[in-house]
Amino acid sequence: MTDPFSPSPPPGAPPGQPVSFGAQVMPTPVRSRRRIGCIAGPIGLVIFLSFMIGVAAAVMGIWPGSLKLTAPIVCPSGFDDTFIVSDTYNPRPGETVTTFTMYCVNERGEARDAGIFKPLLLLWGGVTALVIVLSVVIFLLVRIIRPPNRSTGP
Amino acid sequence: MRIAAPLLAAVFVLTGCIGSISRSEFVAEVNRRGGGLSADRLVEVVDQIEQRTGPVRIRSATISHMSGSIRVSPDDAPQEVDTWSWSDGRLTGPTPVGNASAEELDSYFTVNVIDPDRIEAAIDTAIAQSGLREPWADSVGFSAQPGNSYEASFTVTNRRESQRWLFGPDGIPRRQG
Q: CB contacts < 8 Å between A and B, how many?
């Protein structure tokens, strides 16, 4: 005798298949992949963006003049020239600290300290966007040069 | 790839030497342009002080390229004098001034007397009229005068000689001596 509270599979369906109660139910393996993707995607994005902060800091450390690229946004109007000033300190014997300060200067020599946070933030955004664009371009070029094999019928 | 990586590293190392200058080079460049003295920061500092303490009377002030100091008295305690100073955008103070002189307490001026554009024009005019080669203005000192007024004094200098200049709220510079 069958259990009245246990739904029976539809006729012709192989045993062990998920049973529908009216709403369509996705197969279990696909649902798990989507759940993993919803978690891994944002985590991966955070890791990528965090990594790009390090890249931007490295770019600034190797090439301090890269901060000048942010001058059109950071510097007030009328302060058209930009200087990256490095100051080197020796706080303790054997230890050397170098700091960079970005100044926006006008023709009179009046200078405004642009700080380092905002230019570095903008540099980070620019480097990240550049990496993303280059990745997409390279991906598309690879697809054009070596299109994926398309299986054809007999 | 074996050639590109070291080449790229060499480019980065070489360009690391390009793009930044030392502090002394920056000061020399600022002086080459005239010294960059501006009263904008003085007005901003007074506004910041008044947000903390209420209206103030300015007894004296000195502004340099990226720093300065000012002596003020609160309107509600005019016999008290405090010193504030700023450097690279940071304002510090107040530091009480002990035993302020009667002469200092006699006169003051208020922030609305300060016209930054007129002050900059006076400095630039003096630099142009100095006749010096590659001159710049070092610092400007403001001392209060009776009747909510001030007298500003500054030095136009180059590596060989200096000239003393004065101007008031009218912004007309005159050479002293």
A: 70
